[in-house]
Specification:
Number of strands of chain A: 5
Oligomer: heterodimer
Distance between the termini of chain A: 22 Å
Strand order of the largest sheet of chain A: 2-1-3-4-5
Helix content of chain A: 40-55%
Strand content of chain B: 15-25%
Number of helices of chain A: 5
Strand order of the largest sheet of chain B: 2-1-3-4-5
Shape of chain B: elongated
Largest sheet of chain A: 5 strands, parallel
Chain lengths: 140, 367
Amino acid sequence: MDQQKKLLIIDDDPDFVEGIKSILDAANYSVDVAYNPKTGLQALQSKIYDLLLLDIMMGRGAEGIMIARKLRKDAKLREMPVLIITGIREQMAFLFPGEPVHPRFVAVDELVEKPVEPTLLLEKVSTLIKTAEARKTKAE
Amino acid sequence: MDYRPKIIIIDDEEVVLDSCTQILEGSDYIVRTAEDGTLGLKLVQELQPDLVCIDLKMPGITGIEVLEKITESNPTIVSIVITGYATVTSAVEAMKKGAYDFLPKPFTPDEFRLITKRGLERRRLMLETIALRKEKELLRENFAAIVSHELKSPLGAIQQNLFALSAELSGVLNENQQSRFERMKSRIEDLIKLINSWLRVMSIDIAKINENFSPILLPTVISKSIEIIEPQAIRKDIQIITSIDESMDPIEGEEVSFEEALVNIIGNGIKYSYPGGKISIKAKQVDEHILITISDTGVGIPKEELPYVLVDFFRGKSGMEIEDSHGLGLTISRRIIEAHKGTISVESKQGEGTTFYISVPALKKKG
């Protein structure tokens, strides 16, 4: 039997988080939540997660980007899959001028727009976790 | 700060300067005078007035030259030309050089007061227009951020919870409650779509899509667009008939946005068609241009509305009840096609249907 997967959501909108979390809870994931980038980073450093759900537009702008950059620099966290959740896709384009709309933060990531349909959300989450695990097995 | 209007009078005749100053006394203006063009221009530079009255015939620099220099340095300063030798030619010349109005000598105090008042009103309107334009620019730039955060986030949060509840409440709600629940979801979805299309128009510089241009094949783009729109057509029992010349040259463009442009136009045709109607899509190459025509057999567009359908923020008010139309789709299409160096035009007959003509330059074959 598979061990229960641990997920972390970093998003500053508690209502939105509730909506996402209850879908993931119902699908038998263990879900932690951080409502700002700072506690989010602390959580990432103190516990190992199978997947991160990251909001990009937080606080005074794209504070989620800051986390993504830190992940990229960390040899261990770099291997964790990330599902980027964003309010609007177009904004991504001007946050990363010249880069394609979907920025590759880490080895395994995907981008979805808010709000996310439950089936799509669950499908992305499980695919990302599987892809990351496959990568890991291959590397070992 | 002193907000009193500043007026400069430039005339070589002292008596004119004195009488003009006198006429304007009592009104809440700051009035300065200069006896020739050189002094006058210096004063204009110093004071940055709202209005300048210039005598055309002066020794030294002529009134016309003074006028030209003022218009050049600050086109928002309103110039009024005064002249003793009132001829149509000199009036026309002065107007061409940027004068706002023309006052032949001799004039009565009332005439002078009136023309000054009108000139100042003109200046006020010009400054107001500039300020509004700046404000509009600012608003446009900030719109994406404001709208997405302040409007979309709450809606997104609501919708996310409806999504979650929808699964959690299955089996709990009765059929009627279930259908109301689905309506709620679809209403919110419409609202989010509306905001997205507003954002697209307001915040995205469609002209910039050409940064991602590469050779694309229009027959492929057209069939993809039809695939996207087909469910809508089927729902309304509308037949899409195509006649596409597959051998055409590629164009320089961006597939996704061109697809969006076509989907908007075809979708428009479906929206304004009666059930059972037809939409015909033709594409062929004529010399160095690819021509696409999209015609429907729908309600048509009234003559008086026709010039405006492709203009920003227009939405037809006649015809039939339309669901889910934000009046922005065609505008977006036009902008996308123009970004592809193409043109779009429309012909329509009320009661018979509408045809859109798109022309885009084909990519020249090498060699």
